């Protein structure tokens, strides 16, 4: 069976409707780009960079409110301290492998200088997960050019999933993992808002994997699909980026980011000790212009946040599952293989539990 998104397999999780593309790019203005690096010489490399523009090049001088939540902190996201301090994001976001986070961060700074962005200093956001099982991370293959390529390739509309960008060499619940995305549309106080999620999924034990409550990981165990059992199965991470066009303040963005934990738990993530589970949420519904003394803002009332909370949880859940169903089996560094979730077997298990 060819690789497909979850809904293309006839499997629907949650109750809220998705956006047009069922992707983070359903949030108006959000664009995503990839640089994917796969080679066997001079070293075996399966890695890349994912770039997310919250609202295009104007983000440098037209900030969005944002916040970060660390579910388990064995990971890194640059720029988090300044976001925590002022509650704003004024740069694109990149996700890559652990050893490349500094290179990509520096590349964003150089990119802004080259584009003559009129700000005096930069603290860009770059997050990471470790792909050293499939990629020779110690060869440091990612360069500034890869980061720039991802930034320049960013587009709206449908985007690729699975073995692309920063997710190229990642493993999820002992199947091949990687990049996934999804969205949900909600009606709040007479207005329509979208919540979109993009994940880089590289975490989790096989036996914990569940889809709509179905114990898929136990049904498709290592006896059916081999696993990388010679490394700790909780050794990994997930980065979740949530976007919405709702008018949220920074504290509300933080509350939204926390709800990604629910979606992660529905799939089987527990925040293992060695996992870096870091979530960032930004809201484009307000504009904070650089150099402007006073900005007029709107705020969704606390009592109307529940639909967005549900949307964040559902979109995160489906984004992880889309990463699993889109990713293809990959052999990489030292001959290691990460096997894809077998879709025919997966569909059979789901139909047996959910006829």
Structural summary, described in words:
This protein is α+β, with helices and mostly antiparallel strands. It has a single domain (17-338), classed as 4-Layer Sandwich (L-amino peptidase D-ALA esterase/amidase). The protein has eight helices and 14 strands. It has helices at residues 80-86, 101-114, 144-152, 216-219, 250-258, 260-267, 306-326, 343-353, and strands spanning 31-39, 45-53, 62-73, 88-89, 93-97, 125-129, 171-172, 175-176, 178-188, 191-202, 237-244, 276-289, 330-331, 337-338. Strands 4-3-12-11-10-9 form a six-stranded mixed β-sheet, sandwiched between helices. A four-stranded mixed β-sheet has the order 1-2-5-6. β1 (31-39) and β2 form a beta hairpin. α2 crosses α3 and α6 packs across α7. The two termini are 20 Å apart. The mean pLDDT is 96.
DSSP, total strands: 14
- Please write the CATH class name: Alpha Beta
Query: How many H/I helical runs?
Result: 8
Class by alpha and beta content: alpha+beta
CATH superfamily (homologous) name: L-amino peptidase D-ALA esterase/amidase
Q: Biggest β-sheet: count, sense, barrel?
A: 6 strands, mixed
Mean pLDDT over the full residue set: 96
Strand content: 25-35%
Rg estimate, integer Å: 19 Å
Q: What's the overall geometry?
A: globular
CATH architecture: 4-Layer Sandwich
Q: How are the strands of the largest sheet arranged? A: 4-3-12-11-10-9
Helix percent reads 10-25%
């Amino acid at each position: 069976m060819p690789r497909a998104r979850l809904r293309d397999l006839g499997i629907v999780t949650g109750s809220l409707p998705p956006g047009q593309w069922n992707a983070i790019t359903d949030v108006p203005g959000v664009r995503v780009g990839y640089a994917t690096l796969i080679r066997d010489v001079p070293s075996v490399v399966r890695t890349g960079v994912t770039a997310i523009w919250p609202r295009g090049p104007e983000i440098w001088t037209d900030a969005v409110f944002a916040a970060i939540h660390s579910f388990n902190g064995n990971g890194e996201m640059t720029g988090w301290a300044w976001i925590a301090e002022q509650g704003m994001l004024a740069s694109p976001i990149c996700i890559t492998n652990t050893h490349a986070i500094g290179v990509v961060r520096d590349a964003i700074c150089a990119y802004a200088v080259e584009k003559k962005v009129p700000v005096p200093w930069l603290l860009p956001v770059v997050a990471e997960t470790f792909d050293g099982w499939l990629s020779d991370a110690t060869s440091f293959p990612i360069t500034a050019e890869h980061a720039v390529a991802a930034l320049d390739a960013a587009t709206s509309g449908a985007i690729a999933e699975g073995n692309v960008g920063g997710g190229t060499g990642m493993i999820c619940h002992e199947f091949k993992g990687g990049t996934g995305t999804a969205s949900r549309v909600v009606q709040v106080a007479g207005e329509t808002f979208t919540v979109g999620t993009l994940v880089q999924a590289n975490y989790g034990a096989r036996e914990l994997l569940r889809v709509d409550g179905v114990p898929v990981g136990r049904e498709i165990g290592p006896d059916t699909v081999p696993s990388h059992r010679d490394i700790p199965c909780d050794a990994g991470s997930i980065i979740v980026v949530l976007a919405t066009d709702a008018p949220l303040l920074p504290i509300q963005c933080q509350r939204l980011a926390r709800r990604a934990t629910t979606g992660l738990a529905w799939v089987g993530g527990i925040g293992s000790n060695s996992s870096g589970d870091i979530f960032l949420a930004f809201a484009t519904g307000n504009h904070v212009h650089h150099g402007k003394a006073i900005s007029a803002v709107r705020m969704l009332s606390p009592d109307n946040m529940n639909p967005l909370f549900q949307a964040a949880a559902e979109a995160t859940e489906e984004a992880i599952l889309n990463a699993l169903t889109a990713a293809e089996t990959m052999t990489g560094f030292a001959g290691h293989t990460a096997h894809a979730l077998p879709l025919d077997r997966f569909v059979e298990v789901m139909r047996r539990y959910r006829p």
